[in-house]
Design a protein that fits this description.
- The protein is α/β, with parallel strands linked by helices and 619 residues long.
- 36% of the residues lie in helices and 17% in strands.
- It has 19 helices and 22 strands.
- It has a 7-stranded mixed sheet with strand order 3-4-2-1-5-6-7, with helices on both faces.
- Strand 6, helix 5 and strand 7 (165-168) form a beta-alpha-beta unit.
- Helix 6 packs across helix 12, helix 9 packs across helix 10 and helix 12 (384-395) runs parallel beside helix 13.
- The radius of gyration is 33 Å and the shape is elongated.
- The protein starts with a strand and ends in a 12-residue tail after the last helix.
Length: 619
């Protein structure tokens, strides 16, 4: 497995492939910009799993070549041993860097640079050098990613099923989990291939209370030592004092088509946003005066129809009618009154034009938080992740106020198009969070790229409103654990959550690299449960066993059976057009069955046979 990247995701991915799946990994990172040697791995969990890497990586004589760092436990001919990591340095993923990383012999390549253009250029080069290569590409632009998948799949070796191309976005992968952590009552939802799963957090029922069915409990929340993932049936029933994560199945809600009638379209027009209340009342009064003059003209002028009376009144109003010298006294008076009303109409029309122009000009500007706003989400940071989270929040109809330091950030245009109130300023400066009405908010989502900035914003928000719900983006695990415990002890009644974008996205990237489809990831505190779809055939832990026998507490659990791909199982069983969630007790998994499993990282690796670690037989 070859990895190219320049941020924390590449280190998390290397840790996932090496420590969980036991793969031989070649990690290629840019050289240190300040002239110092770059550490072989990132901090936190990545450092622990990549601790087997020894030696420092060097630079080529010209600074642009590739140099390898030593790897503990190297195999013959200089190849790394199973589960080892070899670290190289390269300024960019050019042909020389790809060749030095051994792209011709690699099974898979992950390109996870933060720049889409760099990943695209490297993917085109890699596909030309190795048509059999499995490609996993990190792209923020989803539409471009679809086109790129088709292009690279066409360039792959014909007939080679493993030479696939998968385009993923770490922001898209992490956004649902961040939104779920921030919004009360909104649980984690995983949707793929006709499956809709919802992971809900339930509080501890307490002694004597009713508990959720053991088969639905995916995790027992922390009681001080960390959460217990996929507990056994007896353990789940006895843990009556601990909260839990429960997996529920939900159906697709019926689609409601928007009304296409002209009346509904007219009602949806935001006429009130074009003219102020005072101007609307002035125009209404003027229209009433014109109508009164028309009625008076109809009554005064003999042998005049209603249409002719309105026509005469408008001519008098705009001062384009002949003087009524030979007309009756009443007609002369009405003409003078119409002229006076016409003089009043001119400034009103000018005011309406100027106000409408100002409305259109302000439509392209960022909105300020309106008065009386409360119960909203304050979103800090409108980068790649923040923009995706903002989209999800608005899809759910949740009021949001954004705070961003850079007026040219990626999500500023999105906030402007969605008409979301946005405050431009540094969140560490006094008055910025107050401008976002943090005191009246419901949740603070701190998603900037700086851990210290997110922590500072969370502490300031807690000082203003102690019970505000806080969700922080933190990378380093030990730092996040210390922050969580301190905030929990200081504010036991408030909800505090921390999430790492790279940690949430790494399982999906790793699953794509080993050729497996992961439907989604469910965060449980700082750990992750994976939902994957697997063929029972070829897996001795699944094939020939019932769902109960095939499940191993603490490692994996069989949740459901997917529909048959061809409508009938290989042994002639009846067609199954929809997923089966309530599996019969005696149903034995066989060839042709595709199951949905919930597993830990290590459990999924064991189930796929990616690691040789001995364990107790599933039976």
């Amino acid at each position: 497995m070859v990895l190219f990247g320049d941020d924390g995701l590449v280190h998390r991915l290397a840790a996932e492939l090496s420590g969980v799946y036991g793969e031989q990994v070649t990690l290629v990172v840019p050289p240190a910009r300040d002239g110092r040697r770059r550490p072989a791995a990132a901090t936190g969990r990545a450092a622990a799993l990549l601790g087997r890497v020894t030696g420092a990586v060097g630079r080529g004589a010209n600074g642009g070549g590739v140099n390898g760092g030593g790897a503990h436990g190297g195999g013959p001919n200089g190849t790394p041993a199973a589960g080892s990591v070899r670290v190289l340095e390269a300024a960019e993923p050019d042909d020389a860097a790809l060749a030095e990383a051994g792209i011709e012999r690699a099974a898979a390549l992950a390109l996870v640079y933060d720049d889409d253009e760099t990943n695209i250029h490297a993917a085109l080069r890699a596909r030309r050098l190795n048509p059999r290569l499995r490609l996993v590409i990190r792209l923020y632009n989803r539409r471009l990613g679809q086109y790129l998948e088709e292009l690279l799949d066409q360039a792959a070796l014909v007939g080679d099923a493993d030479a696939s191309t998968t385009v993923l976005s770490d922001a898209d992968t992490a956004a649902p989990a961040l939104v779920a952590a921030a919004v009360a009552g909104t649980s984690k939802v995983i949707e793929a291939g006709g499956l809709l799963l919802r992971a809900a957090e339930r509080p501890a029922p307490g002694p004597g209370g009713s508990t959720a069915p053991a088969g639905c409990t995916l995790a027992l929340l922390s009681d001080g030592d960390g959460p217990d993932l996929l507990p056994g049936e007896q353990e789940a029933r006895q843990a009556v004092t601990r909260g839990r994560i429960v997996l529920e199945t939900v159906r697709y809600p019926g689609a409601v088509r928007p009304s296409t009638s002209r009346l509904a379209a007219a009602r949806s027009l935001p006429l009130g946003s074009f003219f102020s209340r005072r101007l609307r009342w002035a125009l209404a009064g003027l229209a009433a005066a014109v109508l009164g003059l028309a009625v008076a003209s109809w009554l005064v002028v003999e042998e005049s129809s209603a249409q002719h009376a309105v026509y005469l009144s408008l001519l008098d109003l705009f001062a384009i009618n002949d003087p009524a010298k030979e007309e009756s006294l009443g007609r002369k008076v009405l003409q003078l009154l119409s002229g006076l009303v016409g003089l009043l109409l001119l400034p009103l029309l000018l005011a309406a034009a100027l106000e409408g122009l100002g409305t259109f000009r302000s439509a392209s500007a960022l909105r300020r938080p309106p008065r009386g706003l409360s119960g909203h989400v304050v979103l800090l940071g409108l980068g790649k992740v923040g923009a995706r989270v903002l989209t999800r929040l608005r899809e759910l109809g949740i009021p949001v106020v954004c705070v961003e330091r850079d007026p040219q950030a990626r999500g500023i245009a999105l906030a402007r198009s969605l008409r979301v109130p946005t405050v431009i300023g540094d969140v560490t400066e006094e008055g910025v969070l107050e401008a976002a009405k943090i005191g009246d908010s419901r949740t603070l989502l701190a998603l900037t790229s700086s851990d210290t900035t997110n922590l500072e914003a969370a502490l300031y928000a807690r000082a203003v409103k102690p019970d505000v719900r806080v969700v922080m983006r933190l990378y380093e695990d030990r730092f996040a654990r210390a922050v969580y415990r301190t905030l929990r002890d200081s504010h036991p009644q408030a909800l505090t959550r921390s999430r790492s974008v790279s940690s949430l996205a790494a399982p999906a990237f790793a699953g794509a690299m080993v050729g497996r489809t992961i439907l989604g990831a469910i965060p449980v505190e700082r750990r992750v449960l994976l939902i994957a779809a697997l063929e029972a055939e070829g897996h001795p832990e699944l094939e020939g066993r019932t769902a109960t026998e095939a499940s191993v507490p603490g490692e994996w659990r069989v949740l459901a059976l997917e529909p048959y791909g061809d409508g009938r199982r290989a042994d002639g069983a009846e067609p199954r057009p929809v997923p089966v969630w309530d599996l019969p007790a005696g149903y034995v998994l066989g060839a042709g069955d595709r199951v949905v499993v919930a597993a830990t990282r290590q459990g999924l690796a064991d189930l796929l046979g990616r690691r040789s670690r001995p364990r107790t037989d599933a039976r």
